[in-house]
Amino acid sequence: MAMAAIARVSELPLCLLLLCLLLPCLAHARVNSVPELENRMYATLQGSPCVRWLNLTGELGCGNPRRTLAKAPIRTADNALDSPAAVLVPSEKAFREFVDRFGDNENVIGVLVGNGSRVAAGDSDDVQFPQSQFAPYENRAWIWNSVGSGLMQRRFNFPVFLLSPESTVLAQKLASENADNGFKRPTNAVEFGDIMQTTKSETYTSESCLRDLSCLPLGGYSVMSTFPAVNVSAPVTKPVVVAMASMDAATFFRDVAPGADSPMSGVLALLAAVDALSRIDGFNEFPKRLVVLVFTGEARGYLGSRQFLAQLKKGNFVDYGLTTSSIKQVVEVGSVGQASQSTFFAHKQATAASASTQQILESLRLSAAATSSTVKLANAANPGIPPSSLMTFVHNDPSVAGVVLEEFDTAFSNKFYHSQYDDKSNVNTTAIAAAASILARTLVMLASDNTDSPILKSIQVTLLCSQLPLFNRFVLDNLVCFLSDFAPHL
Ligand SMILES: *[C@@H]1O[C@H](CO)[C@@H](O)[C@H](O)[C@H]1NC(C)=O
Ligand SMILES: *[C@@H]1O[C@H](CO)[C@@H](O)[C@H](O)[C@H]1NC(C)=O
Ligand SMILES: *[C@@H]1O[C@H](CO)[C@@H](O)[C@H](O)[C@H]1NC(C)=O
Ligand SMILES: *[C@@H]1O[C@H](CO)[C@@H](O)[C@H](O)[C@H]1NC(C)=O
């Protein structure tokens, strides 16, 4: 399978991913030192880059292979491109229109994308069937993500930065000064920080660049936790119920991927459910053990779940009582932050009909009924499960009993999937709390093999950040405070 790699930039803190701006010397006052001169000549634009991604067969994203220094006068996209230019476009939508027309134009030295407002109809940098190559079914033409532009899959040979709001204002001012004086010297020019823009020559695939140390491998930490905790000096193997979610999003501009609905709403629901379960007794007596998994790297080729199953097969989790044959049921929480009227959809593989699968579906249905929500079985016309970590599990074992809980039925309801705009305004905390309650009850029913367990009565799901310190590690600090302010105890 393809392995992706990223151009050498990761060591740099975000604040260094800057653009330098070459300004004409405006002041006539005396300059006393070189740094002072530099300060007068340069201003810094703050932006987030589109970076170069490499896979086994080629390159995606943005790079600067032709030049060692990318520097040119700044201008807006409405002027004719008759000389080298750093082009300022107002928004990501305008950027897509621009590159459709001028993407191959040699005069494009670099592009600055302004902080345009989001398009109400939707915007997604991913394709219409994200990561379809991992689907455990034939139909790859299915449209899960109807607004997908596929921008993430494109390749550009010039740097592209998303500007901060303040820098957008400054860039607009500089571009209009240039236009006003007819691009006569001295002009305002942009010099792109190119540290991260150039791949060491001749390493155009992940394999060769990793060998040459001209890029870094993709990676990260996934998290596993067991209920009850396993005594590693005397592990007991029990049948396992897996509850899982993924925690990373991806967009065209690597560092602007809030992923509030997809996938963070699912992570928040899962952590709130687990938090509730951590405060009840009885798991020791249940016939099944609960294993909670939160994967990273899923948005870039399901790296986390594939690594987990690879290590499971090697026997690396035997000390945790976990082997390939112990996993009986898998419940995944996908995007749940937009469930309207607290209605969710349970997705399973079309062929999955085992008693274990039925038990998951029935537990979800009963749990919803007990918490004033609804869980419906997803449309039978769907080709199979939507893009999810469960795809990895089905590939590993087609007979696995697995269900993905989602806010949507036949296509994403998230109009900003894998977009810079999938922020907290894109989720409804009531829906996340409802999903958490359904999950907590479902997991008790499955682990206890009892839909009427007395323990169900003691489940208290809350979305309070003080009880979920893990939240602080995620991008959504503001969402968390929002949750603690408004989410009721359920
Ligand atoms: C790898 O990159 C090549 C070249 O851009 C692209 O055509 C191909 O679709 C990519 N493969 C995957 C799995 O994304
Ligand atoms: C971009 O940011 C500026 C400065 O904060 C703000 O005035 C403007 O409304 C923003 N533009 C959009 C389209 O959000
Ligand atoms: C773990 O297992 C060891 C070996 O059987 C035992 O001595 C120890 O008491 C167990 N620890 C707990 C916390 O049960
Ligand atoms: C969130 O969903 C609830 C229940 O469906 C609804 O009453 C509420 O208005 C929604 N909140 C927002 C901000 O859309």
Q: What does this molecule look like?
A:
This protein has 2 domains: 5-216, no CATH class; 219-486, Aminopeptidase (3-Layer(aba) Sandwich). 25% of the residues lie in helices and 19% in strands. It is of the alpha/beta class. The strands form 3 sheets. A 7-stranded mixed β-barrel has the order 2-3-10-8-7-6-11. α5 (260-277) packs across α9 (429-448) and α7 crosses α9. The protein has helices at 34-41, 92-102, 165-180, 206-211, 260-277, 303-313, 355-370, 390-396, 429-448, 477-486, and strands at 5-7, 18-22, 42-49, 52-54, 59-62, 70-76, 85-89, 108-113, 155-156, 160-163, 189-192, 215-217, 223-227, 240-246, 289-295, 327-333, 343-347, 374-377, 401-406. The longest helix is centred in the last third of the chain and has 20 residues, at 429-448. 47% of the residues are buried. α5 (260-277) links the parallel β14 (240-246) and β15 (289-295). The chain starts with a strand and ends with a helix. It has 10 helices and 19 strands. Residues 340-342, 428, 430-431 line the site of one 2-acetamido-2-deoxy-beta-D-glucopyranose. One 2-acetamido-2-deoxy-beta-D-glucopyranose binds at residues 340-342, 428, 430-431.
